[in-house]
């Protein structure tokens, strides 16, 4: 049953095809939502009382359901009449009577810079923008609901749809839509013919009135073959990327150079000399302390039964991260395509269920845990429960504002169904395989009484190691993180796929190397409590990312307690996921290197 669900899910991802049209075919336009970058709230466009109510009631829903809920999407088929390759001029959609309350609501929404998002053939309506960085035009999703001028508010009641299309090489006489541009305008009394250069705008007044909503349709053929989503990407500063990437490579090489020195000099020298030669190092206790705790270094950590489920979930998210980055690089999905990231995230998250259960069970077996079933259940529940709790808090905030961002009942049913009936069995299967595997025997046995940890100097404190551990990985990912926050706050897609692939690899390598170095220094200080410390050091870059996210908040246009709460909650959720990935990477790196080091010495 579980394998069938995953197979169907894979087919839904790969079998998403662009519709082909021929002349005269009806093209459905869907209402979606209005959203604001100021208060972070979105509302269903159909729920607005001042727009033309649609006579259609058919809704467009995704199989996952919750992927639309997370974006606040509410698709309803509109009454706009669009036929392929048929231009239309100044068509009246409706004449909508407005009450005083409607006018007040419009003024509030326009003051908050609300944008309207519709959809045509799976593409969100976009406005064209030009920047100095890009040689060609770029798209921004949505168009303004209205605008303010001289202390007056005006509603954009006329829209010009310009649909870009190209011929379909696979089907003669058919075409594919590659762009959906919306040009809004404000025209009083429905006089959209624009016979005069200057014409009055449709002002929002504090009295009862009737507003005419009109539209025009233009079809434009594009000769050059283009990806329908590339125009949504804003090219970054390549020169700045090159310098940052070069610095990241140098920093990563330095870290692994330190590891090479440790392995080739300290460890090799210590393990190759006998006890008589070891006297030469009497004045260098800081470098041989790791040998003195060989009987304690593999002692089961406190709360080890919690560490293994978290580590298992971290492996799951690590698979998601690597899968998303590789898929993006291979062009299997496009970051600008609505819902594609959520679908692929869900796919890789489910795909990582078996490895998560397996790895968690193997380490749990090293800790000599008593119930692998309990461990597998915790692996499937601990981190997802934390994520769902955060989503529930976010849902309560948005629900109190009657926002479409609140996850619907069917969305929650979809989440829990996938969680219980797909993820849990996959994790249990992996845990069963791990339980049946042979236990990884440690290079040295532990004593009954744990060794006392000697007093530490200030630079040997755990807090100092945690703070040091995150600096280099954060410096590597900083520019990419800054561009991501800019994209979120400005509604743009600033992304270089090659650069993202490179810096992500460097960040993973640097995190792994830094954790190994700092944990080895901790062992040299005769501190054998390294299990949790390796995970925390590995996760420390996410702490810097969170702090910078808080600092960046002051440069955004977000206002109000609700908007700030949504921003911070999303920031916590994102940084926690990154922390779990890098923390698990740091833990596994330290675990295997320490096993290798202690397996090379003889313990009497």
UniProtKB/TrEMBL annotation:
Main location: Golgi
InterPro entries named among the record's database cross-references: EMP70
Record's signal peptide: 1-20
Domain of life: Eukaryota
Entry keywords, A to Z: Golgi apparatus, Membrane, Signal, Transmembrane, Transmembrane helix
Membrane topology: Multi-pass membrane protein
Keyword Cytoplasm: no
GO CC terms, sorted: Golgi apparatus; membrane
A Pfam short name: EMP70
GO BP field: protein localization to membrane
Localization, UniProt: Golgi apparatus; Membrane
Residue intervals passing through the bilayer: 242-264, 302-332, 344-361, 373-399, 411-433, 458-479, 499-523, 530-553, 565-594
Family affiliation: Belongs to the nonaspanin (TM9SF) (TC 9.A.2) family.
Name of the protein in its database record: Transmembrane 9 superfamily member
């Amino acid at each position: 049953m579980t394998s069938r669900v995953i197979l169907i899910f894979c087919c839904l991802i790969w079998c998403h095809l662009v519709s082909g049209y021929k002349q005269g075919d009806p093209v459905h336009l869907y209402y979606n939502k209005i959203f604001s970058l100021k208060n972070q709230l979105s509302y269903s466009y159909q729920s607005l009382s001042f727009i033309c109510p649609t006579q259609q009631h058919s809704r467009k829903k995704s199989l996952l359901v919750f992927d639309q809920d997370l974006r606040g999407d509410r698709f309803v088929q509109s009454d706009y009449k669009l036929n392929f390759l048929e231009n239309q001029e100044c068509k009246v959609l409706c004449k909508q009577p407005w009450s005083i309350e409607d006018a007040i609501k419009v003024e509030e929404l326009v003051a908050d810079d609300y944008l309207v998002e519709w959809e045509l053939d799976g593409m969100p309506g976009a406005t064209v923008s030009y920047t100095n960085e890009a040689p060609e035009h770029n798209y921004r999703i949505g168009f303004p609901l209205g605008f303010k001028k001289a202390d007056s508010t005006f509603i954009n009641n006329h829209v010009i749809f310009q649909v870009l299309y190209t011929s379909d090489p696979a089907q003669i006489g058919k075409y594919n839509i590659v762009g959906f541009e919306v040009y809004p305008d404000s025209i009083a009394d429905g006089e959209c013919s624009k016979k005069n250069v200057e014409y009055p705008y449709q002002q929002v007044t504090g009295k009862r009135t009737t507003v005419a909503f009109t539209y025009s349709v233009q079809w434009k053929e594009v000769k050059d073959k283009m990806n329908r989503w590339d125009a949504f990407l804003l090219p970054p500063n390549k020169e700045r990327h090159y310098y940052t990437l070069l610095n990241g490579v140098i920093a990563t090489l330095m870290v692994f150079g330190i590891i090479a020195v440790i392995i080739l000099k300290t460890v090799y020298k210590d393990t190759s000399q006998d006890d008589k030669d070891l006297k030469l190092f009497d004045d260098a206790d800081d470098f041989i302390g790791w040998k003195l705790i060989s009987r304690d270094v593999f002692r089961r950590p406190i709360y080890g039964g919690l560490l293994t489920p978290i580590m298992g979930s971290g492996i799951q998210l690590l698979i998601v991260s690597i899968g998303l980055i590789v898929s993006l690089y291979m062009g299997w999905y496009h970051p600008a395509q609505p819902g594609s990231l959520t679908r692929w995230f869900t796919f890789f998250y489910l795909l990582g269920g078996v490895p998560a259960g397996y790895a968690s069970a193997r380490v749990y077996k090293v800790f000599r845990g008593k119930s692998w079933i309990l461990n597998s259940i915790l692996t499937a529940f601990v981190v997802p429960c934390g994520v769902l709790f955060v989503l529930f808090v976010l849902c309560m905030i948005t629900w109190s504002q009657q926002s479409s961002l609140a996850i619907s009942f069917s969305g929650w049913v979809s989440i829990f169904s996938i969680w219980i009936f797909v993820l849990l069995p996959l994790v249990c299967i992996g845990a069963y395989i791990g339980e049946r595997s042979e236990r990884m025997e440690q290079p040295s046995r532990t004593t009954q009484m744990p060794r006392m940890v000697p007093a530490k100097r200030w630079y040997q404190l755990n807090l100092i190691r945690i703070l040091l551990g995150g600096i280099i990985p954060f410096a590597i990912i900083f520019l990419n993180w800054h561009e991501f926050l800019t994209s979120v706050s400005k509604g743009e897609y600033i992304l270089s796929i090659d650069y993202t692939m490179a810096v992500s690899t460097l960040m993973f390598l640097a995190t792994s190397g830094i954790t190994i170095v700092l944990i080895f220094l901790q062992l040299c200080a005769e501190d054998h409590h390294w299990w949790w410390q390796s995970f925390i050091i590995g996760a420390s870059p996410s702490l810097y990312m969170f702090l910078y996210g808080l600092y960046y908040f002051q440069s955004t246009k977000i206002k109000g307690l609700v908007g700030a709460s949504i921003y911070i909650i999303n920031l916590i959720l994102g940084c926690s996921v990154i922390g779990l990935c890098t923390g698990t990477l740091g833990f596994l790196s330290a675990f295997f290197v320490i096993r290798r080091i202690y397996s090379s010495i003889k313990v009497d």
